[in-house]
Specification:
Layout lengths: L3 E6 L4 H13 L3 E6 L5 H13 L6 E4 L8 E9 L2 E2 L1 H10 L6 E7 L4 H12 L5 E6 H5 L4 H15 L7 H4 L5
Parallel strand pairs: 1-2, 1-4, 4-6, 6-7
Antiparallel strand pairs: 2-3, 4-5
Helix pairs in contact: 1-6, 3-4
The structure holds flavin mononucleotide (FMN).
C-alpha cells in the first residue's frame, strides 16, 4: 500500500485543523513544521509580512516521520501576502528535492493559492500531483470536509497501481 504523509505549518491554527481533518479522514500520519522563534502579536505578524515580501526562509524545525520515506507528501500551509508562508518555504527549500511526490493544500482568506503551489513546484523541481485550496471560512464552518474527502480520494487513486499520475486531470478546483 502506498504511504502518504501530511506535513503542516500553521500560524494561527487553521491549517493545522484542516490537516488533522484530512489525516483523520484518510488515516494518514501528520508531521509538523514549527518556527524555531515563535511568532506572537504585532511583531509576529510583521515577521510574516517581511518573510513574504523578502521571500525569506526563517529557521524551522520539523517534527514527524522522515518525509523522504513516503510515496507522497501533502503540504498544508497558509498563504501570506499572496505567497507561500515563509516557514513552509524553509521546509520545502530544505527537503523538497528529496520528496518522491508532493500535493499541495493551501489555506487562505481568499487569494494567492496558485502562487503558493507554483513556489512549491519550483522548490521541489517537480509539479505537484494535485493542488487545491481551502478558505479560512470553509475551515471555520466545516464546509471544507467534502473537498478534503475528494482531495484525499484523488490522491489515493493517483497512487493506485492502475492509475498513473496526470497532474492536469487531478485538480479538484482552480487554485
Ligand atoms: C501576514 C498574513 C498575510 C496573509 N495574506 C493573505 C493573502 O495574501 N491571501 C489570503 O487569502 N489570505 C491571507 N492571509 C490569511 C491566511 O492565509 C488565513 O487566515 C489562513 O487561514 C491562516 O492559516 P493558519 O491559521 O494556519 O495560520 C494572511 C494572513 C497573515 C497572518
Amino acid at each position: 500500500m502506498s504511504k502518504v504523509l501530511v506535513v503542516v505549518y500553521s500560524y494561527t491554527g487553521t491549517s493545522r485543523r484542516v490537516a488533522q481533518l484530512l489525516c483523520s479522514q484518510q488515516g494518514w500520519p501528520l508531521g509538523t513544521v514549527a518556527d524555531v522563534r515563535p511568532r506572537r502579536g504585532v511583531e509576529g505578524n510583521l515577521r510574516c509580512i517581511l518573510d513574504s515580501l523578502l521571500r525569506r526562509r526563517p529557521p524551522v524545525r520539523y517534527d514527524g516521520p522522515p518525509p523522504e520515506t513516503f510515496d507522497l507528501v501533502v503540504l498544508v500551509a497558509p498563504v501570506w501576502l499572496l505567497r507561500l508562508a515563509g516557514p513552509m518555504r524553509s521546509f520545502v527549500g530544505r527537503s523538497g528535492r528529496s520528496l518522491q511526490r508532493v500535493a499541495v493544500l493551501s489555506v487562505m482568506g481568499g487569494q494567492g493559492a496558485p502562487n503558493a503551489a507554483a513556489e512549491i513546484a519550483a522548490l521541489c523541481g517537480s509539479t505537484p500531483v494535485l493542488a487545491a485550496a481551502v478558505t479560512q471560512r470553509e475551515a471555520d464552518d466545516g464546509s471544507c470536509a467534502g473537498l478534503l474527502q475528494s482531495f484525499g480520494t484523488a490522491i489515493q487513486g493517483a497512487l493506485g497501481p492502475a492509475a498513473p499520475v496526470r497532474a492536469a486531470e487531478l485538480s479538484t478546483q482552480a487554485v
